[in-house]
């Protein structure tokens, strides 16, 4: 089955597994999803992730979720730019929320990165999602 919004599917699977207190979640592989998993690990929202590729186009990402005293570290995920309504922001308009505890993920001309890094590099792009 073809997905119209694979990033929203990624976020929904992580959100559902986190609320169900699962140890890990398996997601179909793509370069974008692998980069999102890498950002989640760098920012401390997940413990680790593994990529198992069957070939160059197919594979699976296993994301190991992180918990703090039996409560999920990920409190919320929100898809901002959607296929029906893309949201592009300048570097000065990238949101900073929850006193810096929240992370905005931006797809720029130099790759997918965290909003703080995009602001430092002074580049804008498509605001993919926000995680807190």
TrEMBL record:
The keyword Repressor does not apply. InterPro entries: Ribosomal_uS8, Ribosomal_uS8_sf. One of its GO terms (cellular component) is ribosome. One of its GO terms (molecular function) is structural constituent of ribosome. GO terms for biological process: translation. Keywords: Ribonucleoprotein, Ribosomal protein, RNA-binding, rRNA-binding. The keyword Ribonucleoprotein applies. SUPFAM superfamilies: Ribosomal protein S8 (SSF56047). It comes from the Bacteria. One of the primary rRNA binding proteins, it binds directly to 16S rRNA central domain where it helps coordinate assembly of the platform of the 30S subunit. Belongs to the universal ribosomal protein uS8 family. Part of the 30S ribosomal subunit. Contacts proteins S5 and S12. This is Small ribosomal subunit protein uS8. It comes from Candidatus Criblamydia sequanensis CRIB-18.
């Amino acid at each position: 089955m073809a997905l119209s919004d694979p990033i929203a599917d990624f976020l929904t699977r992580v959100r559902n597994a986190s609320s169900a207190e699962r140890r890990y979640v398996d997601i179909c592989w793509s370069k974008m999803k692998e980069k999102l998993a890498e950002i989640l690990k760098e920012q401390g929202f997940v413990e680790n992730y593994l990529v198992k590729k069957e070939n160059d186009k197919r594979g699976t990402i296993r994301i190991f979720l992180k918990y703090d005293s039996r409560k999920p570290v990920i409190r919320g995920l929100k898809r901002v730019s959607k296929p029906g309504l893309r949201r592009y922001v300048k570097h000065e308009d990238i949101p900073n929320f929850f006193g810096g505890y929240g992370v905005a993920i931006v797809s720029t001309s130099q790759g997918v990165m965290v909003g703080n890094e995009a602001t430092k590099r002074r580049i804008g792009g498509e605001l993919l999602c926000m995680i807190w």
